[in-house]
Design brief:
- There is one protein chain.
- By secondary structure, the chain is mainly alpha-helical.
- The chain has helices at about 5-40, 75-100, 100-115, 125-155, 160-180, 185-195, 205-245, 255-270, 270-285, and strands at about 45, 55-60, 60-65.
- It has a three-stranded antiparallel β-sheet with strand order 1-2-3, with no helix packed on it.
- Strand 1 (about 45) and strand 2 form a beta hairpin.
- Helix 3 (about 100-115) packs antiparallel against helix 4 (about 125-155) and helix 3 runs parallel beside helix 7.
- The longest helix has about 40 residues, at about 205-245.
- It starts with a helix and ends with a helix.
């Protein structure tokens, strides 16, 4: 027997038990249905054609009824609400990253970790968790306002879903416009790309241009903060590297010696309180 035939025979030996198992499971699952159908000789009767509200009938001793409109006619609206909620949940990570303070925080945290040179300490899970809770802290006034002007009235059926969507945009829009501030080069870029020559106020800026402009603005600010964080640690690297070279220890990696000094500097300067405090303040006073 050739090697190819032996391989095919081995696959066949694995496939046969799997096929037998599927057949047994199919027979077991289908047995109760077959038994129930064979125990009764009654015909299936359905509702007359003029019953436009639903379909009703009997199958043996089993009574079934299907009403697409529901008892109060609101089942379709409930289905649409469920679909809307699932859509929002699926888009929540993108909304969190694109329209909140999360981007600036997580980029600055990664710059800080790289500047210290600790590689994977703190781990990504810790940095993302810290950025997430800081985002909740910073965005809590905006979230509260959205809940008051859009979610609560919609739940009480005081406004329509379209009105809730329009009113819910305003707090987010205000937050993003405030963070972009006077340096509106990013906003001007996307307005030019969209072919919009002039807007009278921030209310006239479409969200399709405001959101990417906000993201670029956040990345720009995060990189500026990362550069400022790098400077003191870069000085330590230069001092350690010059000292090792003057001592003739050129084979010893400078990062091995400089990392403990950078960690010590970060602890002495109370780095976490300093970095987090100033980072949060940028969202209020920048």
């Amino acid at each position: 027997m050739s090697k190819k035939q032996h391989s095919g025979f081995g696959r066949l030996k694995i496939f046969i038990p799997v096929l037998a198992l599927v057949a047994v499971l199919t027979f077991i699952c289908g047995a109760p249905v077959y038994a129930q159908a064979s125990d009764t000789n009654e015909d299936i009767t359905t509702a007359p054609a003029e019953n436009t509200q639903g379909i009703e009938g009997t199958l043996g001793n089993l009574h079934f009824e299907f009403n697409p409109n529901g008892e109060d006619g609101n089942s379709w609206s409930s289905t649409l609400r469920i679909i809307l909620v699932l859509t929002v949940i699926s888009l929540a990570p993108s909304i969190l990253i694109m329209m909140t303070s999360f981007t600036r925080i997580i980029v600055v945290m990664h710059f800080l970790r790289t500047a210290i040179g600790t590689q994977t300490t703190p781990p990504n899970q810790v940095l993302i968790g810290l950025a997430l809770f800081l985002t909740i802290f910073i965005m809590s006034p905006t979230i509260t306002e959205i809940n008051d002007v859009a979610i609560k009235p919609l739940s009480a059926n005081e406004i329509t879903a379209q009105e809730a969507f329009e009113k819910g945009q305003q707090p987010i829009r205000t937050f993003m416009v405030r963070q972009i501030g006077n340096s509106d080069a990013e906003l001007r870029l996307f307005l030019d790309l969209a072919g919009i020559e002039q807007v009278d106020s921030a209310e006239d800026v479409p969200m399709s241009s405001l959101i990417p402009a906000f993201i670029l603005s956040e990345l720009k600010k995060a990189f500026i903060m990362g550069f400022l964080i790098y400077l003191p640690f870069l000085v330590i690297d230069m001092v350690v590297s010059s000292t090792l070279m003057s001592m003739g220890m050129m084979m010893l990696p400078p990062t091995t010696i400089s990392m403990p000094f950078k960690v010590l500097l970060f602890i002495v300067a109370d780095g976490w309180n300093l970095i987090i405090g100033e980072l949060v303040k940028t969202f209020y006073y920048y």
